[in-house]
Every structure is written in structure tokens, then in C-alpha cells.
Automatic annotation (TrEMBL):
SMART domains: DMAP_binding. GO terms for cellular component: cell surface. Residues 86-98 have a biased composition (Basic and acidic residues). It comes from the Eukaryota. Residues 174-197 have a biased composition (Low complexity). The lineage of its organism: Eukaryota, Metazoa, Chordata, Craniata, Vertebrata. Residues 9-127 form the DMAP1-binding domain. Residues 69-197 are annotated as: Disordered. This is Disco interacting A. It comes from Bos mutus grunniens.
Amino acid sequence: MAERGCPLEAVQLPAEVRESLAELELELSEGDITQKGYEKKRAKLLARCVPLIQGVDPSLQVENSILGPAQASAPAPKQPKPRPSNARDERFRSDVHTEAVQAALAKYKERKMPMPSKRRSVLTHASVEAYTPPDTSSASEDEGSLQRPGQLASAPLQSRPSIEPWPDPAIQGSSTSSSASSTSSHPGGQPAATPSAAAALAGPAALARVGVPVNSRVSSKIQQLLNTLKRPKRPPLKEFFVDDFEELLEVQQPDPNQPKPEGSQMAVLQGEPLAESSWPPSLLAALQQWGTTQPKAPCLTALDTAGKAVYTLTYGKLWSRSLKLAYTLLNKLTNKNEPLLKPGDRVALVFPNSDPVMFMVAFYGCLLAELVPVPIEVPLTRKDAGSQQVGFLLGSCGVSLALTTDACQKGLPKAQTGEVVTFKGWPPLTWLVIDGKHLTKPPKDWNPAVQDAGPGTAYIEYKTSKEGSTVGVAVSHASLLAQCQALTQACGYSEAETLTNVLDFKRDAGLWHGVLTSILKRIHVVSIPYALMKANPLSWIQKVCVYKAQAALVKSRDMHWSLLAQRGQRDVSLSSLRLLIVADGANPWSISSCDAFLNVFQARGLRPEVICPCASSPEALTVAIRRPPDLGGPPPRRAVLSMSGLSHGVIRVDAEEKLSVLTVQDVGQVMPGANVCVVKVEGTPHLCKTDEVGEICVDSNATATAYYGLLGITKNVFETVPVTAGGAPVSDRPFTRTGLLGFIGPDDLVFVVGKLDGLMVVGFRRHNADDVVATALAVEPMKFVYRGR
């Protein structure tokens, strides 16, 4: 310590000063105080013992009267001598010190006691006057912090029995408490002795070296300290990061050589005008017309799981049952003598996929009562995983009544009272069974007001996003009628045709074709339950043959399953079909199912032009559909696109024999009466170039109107204003975002290459979840990935 400026071997320092100096050394070694602060506090302590310290401000020296005569006559300090920064202090290599501590530990290792819970508790078991530093021969966490120029350097410990150095970097201390204790004084002028835990541990170490018994609690603490010192020195923080990881952390820059769109700015694509025909003023008016003038005409045939027709609902029965339900809802449901429902209230429809008849009665009964049906799935258990999200939908829609059938209600979980339980996350509901015996027949003079289609909400269809949230998509009466008219014109539906429907009749294309549009043209729908398709994948083809159906509504999975089951079936014929609508034709993998299905069934009467893929979304409803040539549609096309180009959002035609290509089929022309454009996926909705992939947007009277009760996201999706490169709006009407990624190809055909929900951006390159399935099918088409696997 003499090299710091004071020959301390000539001065007998009090124990309190030695202790405070040790604390100060500890704080400096751990970096709790700066070098300047260390020198200042050290000089203030030594000024009480050594009057003249080189380089110390006189204001920091205390009066000589508080010191003894021997202390006041101490010689002047020596000039500090610099030490190499990489030198190890010999104080930390004392073999004698190490052996002494180890001997003390070996002597008292049997006496195990709980370790002190606080640092101060050590002080009550050790003598302050005998404190010496513990052995620190192990490498410290930062040796450089102990080798600063100007610090005290100690001579070998054997030659200094009375003065012990005390830097201990292995023990963490508080600079605030240590500094305060080292500078506080008693009224008598002597420094206050408030040692830190480092001093307490060092004291027992010195006692162990001279053979003095040490408290076992302190021995445990020393053992913990030695175990800590034995650990390998931690490398600097920067050594934890390898070069590869540093490269990953760098902000990647776009490849200057990546392909960029080169075409001209696209123009808004206009669909054919909606024909001026004698359309009914509303869908309910069409139902009333057919229910009164053609009561015996078949409307809907339901099949059981064996494929047998269990019931055929006629247009007359649909009209009369819907009237009965509407009268019951408006007049027989009361709450404290007040009607339970009022016009515009939302009502949940809870029906299984095997009962399309009662669902159709409930749907049109709500419309006649001016209520808003909200079709949902049947909850399977009390804690059904999807029930919470459906509960949020019901709560946000303010639903208080649920319609179901007697058979369905019996299958729902019950409480001890026999009532249907309140499902997790659902609002309290009143359940109404709508089987015939539970309804009241209206008086002969009672007729509901069948109004023209207006802006009011007709029904709410649920949509589940990729995050799992469920929202309600509201469709107005005007949009409902316009959608039915556009589908009738695009598909060429005529009166009394037969449609085989394999899809879910509660939502999407299964609802739009099989429940709504069918009413407009008095179509007979044959509904194939999903359970029948699982048992007999060929059942829909068999029903096409039996009923001589002119149209069929399927998905690519149904076409694939029928391929696997068709072996040995020689008596099937598809020659009656003029329209085979592929509802998921926008998926990239649908083309393989269409090609394989045509290859097998063309010999059984299926014509190539019959296959009509379509694209749709819950927000825009039907976006585009391929028309047969007899309806004026152009020849079908397919595009062989470079996957690399698609990942950069550009269209590049490639060779079909390559593996790095994606082959997609067109989904036909835009719907009648609609305007379509493609906008950039991110940022301001600028129009894309003709060879650029973007999000398809639709302006039409036949789209949905809002997310019910969610104004924020409604504006972003249903009120988009596409602009040109110069920032000018392309139309004075807002567009609806479809969530479909694609482009407009030759003959104004629409191509879809993915969905916004499945978009994955990795290193400025776009990939789509659908591409994974498409790639697997391209390698082995017959090993189809289905049923959610």
C-alpha cells in the first residue's frame, strides 16, 4: 500500500480505519466508485492518521488534535509508482493465505449451520479488530479493475502481519452504504466502524490462519465464496456472439438484383353489367311467390348418413313453417309482459350439419320477423375450445336467444337443473326449440310485412381469422339480393334446376348457393351431409346420377376423395352436369384435383368446360367464377409461374418442367356489376402494375357491409380507396379488400396465388402457407394432405 503515497508500515492505523480502507478497496475493485472518488475518500480517512498526504486537498484534512503524536509525525509519502496493466497483484497469490483458509475449513466442515440471511448478521460473530481479507487467489471477474495506476501495491503478506491489504472483487457490495459508513463519524471525532460483509468474511479468514476458532455460520459463507471463486471467469459480453449471429442481427438490405415489376399501371377491371330482368324486389318476395304459386315444388332434400332421402321440404312447407316461426318469435316470447325481441335483434342459429331443413326454416323465419340470424356451430362440450371466440361474437352482437331443434338440444351439455349450461365465454341465452309442436300457428289474417331489400342487416356470418379471433361479417338485405342476382346470371341458373350441395350450408358458398340463390330461381337442392361424405366419398356423384342434377357445388377435397373411391363404380354418369363449381378453386393445389378428376371421369360423361373454379371471401362474397363457353366465358387458362418471381411479388412465366414453378388455374371473370382492381399489399393502396402480385379489391353492391360492431377494422377493409401512382383516387366509391393475393391475366381472367392470412415475409421475400400444400401435391398428387394434417 506504500506505493499509493503513504508508508503505512510506519503508522499503526486503528482497526476502524483499516476496516474502512478495506471497504473502500472493495468498492473500487467492484467498480462501485471511481478512481477519483476512491482517492478522495481514502485521503480523508488517512488524513486522520497522516497529516500530510501528497496531492490531497487541505480542506479534506482533519485537525491534528484528533491524532496521536506518533501519527502526527509520520514522514511524507512517496511518489506513486505506475504498475503494468497486465500484472497480477502478488496479494492474490498468497499460498500461505490459501493454506490457512483451507485448514480452517477442513477443521470446521462438520459444523454446518444455516447461512446468515443478512449481511449484517456476520458482524455479530467476528472480531472487528482482527479483520483481514480472505484469500482471492482465484481469477476475479475483471482483473484490470484492480490494477489501475496509482493504487496501493502491497508487499508480501508475510512481511506485513499488522497491515493487511483488502481488495476483494468476488463479493458484491453497495457503494452507497459503504461510502456512507466510511465517512460517518461519532461525536468524539473517531470514524464509525460499520464493516461490510466483505470485512466480516475476511476477519474469520484471518482468525482461521492463526488457529482461532471460527463460527460455523461464517465458515459456510466462506465456503460459498470459495465455490464462487472456483468458477471459470466469464468471457466479455462480446465473446458470446459469434460472427454468424452478428450477421443475422444486421438489418438486411433488399437485393438490388431482385426482379421488379416492369409492366404498366393496371386499370380498374369492370365486370359485365347486371342484366335488367324481372327480379323480385327481395328474397322474401321470391319465397312468398314460390310458396304460394308452386307449393308442391321441391325446395330441399335432406339425406341421412346412409345416403337415403329422409325428408324433402317443399316451397309451400318452407313458406308456412317460416310464417309460423316468425309469428311465434314476435308474439309468443315475452319478458315481464314485454316482447322479448324487437326488429333488428340478433338471434343465434344452432343446428348440426346434418339438418339443413330446420336451418332453412329458422333462417327465413328470422328474416320474416325482421330479426338478424347469426348461424354458428353446435358446441360439443362445455369448455369447447372455439366456444370462447364464438361467445365473444355472440356477446358483441347482443344475442340473447338461440334457436335449435329438439334433437340438437338433447345433445347439448345440461346443468343439474336440466337446462342447457352456460358455455364458457358465452352470454346468457334463452333456448327455443323450433320443431312444429313448439310453434304457434298464426291467425289467417296475419301476414308479415315483406319489404323491399334495404340497407338494414339481413344476416351475420362468422369468420375466424388466422389468430383465432371470430368476427361477424354483416350482409345487408340489398347486398343479399344483389349477390343472388349476380350468381344467378354468372352461373346461368334457371327455374326448377337441381343442385347437389356438398358444402356447409351455414356459411360461404354453401349458404350463398344452397340456401339463398336457390330461392330466387326455385332450385331443388340436394344436401349431402359431411358424415355421409366420410362414409361414402362417392355419394355426391351417385346423387348427381339419381337426381340428374345440372349443377354441383364441391371442394377440391371432395373431388379427390371420390377419385380414391371410384374404383369398381361403373354405373355412374356425369353427363347431366353443366356446372361443377369448385368453391376453393383459388387454392393453388385445386388444379391438381381438377385435372385428376377430369382425367378419370371424362370417360363417364364429364365435359372439360363444366369445371368452374371460383374465388370468394367472407367480406366480398363471390369475387370471380369461371363461366362455361355457352354462357359467353373465354377458354380456361393456366399460368406456370416462377416461384422466385412470386416471392418478390412479380409475375414471371417459366417452363412447366421445372420444379421451382407454381402452376395455377384461372378462377374466371369478375362478377356481374362489380369493379375489381389489385393494390399493393403494404402501405397506401396504390394500384399494382400488370405484372405485379397484390391484394384483390372489389367495388360492388353484392359485397358485405361491415364487421358487426367493429368500426375500426371495418373502415380498413370495407372502405378502402385505391389510388393511382400520382395519388388520385380511382373511383368515388370505396372498395372492399378480399384478402386474396393475385393478378389479372389475359382475357381479363382473375388468378389467385395465395391469401393474405397465409402470407409469410422472410428476408424481403414473400411465401404463402398454401404453397407448402401445393408443393407437396406437385411431388405426389395422390398422397393428398387433408383433414387438417
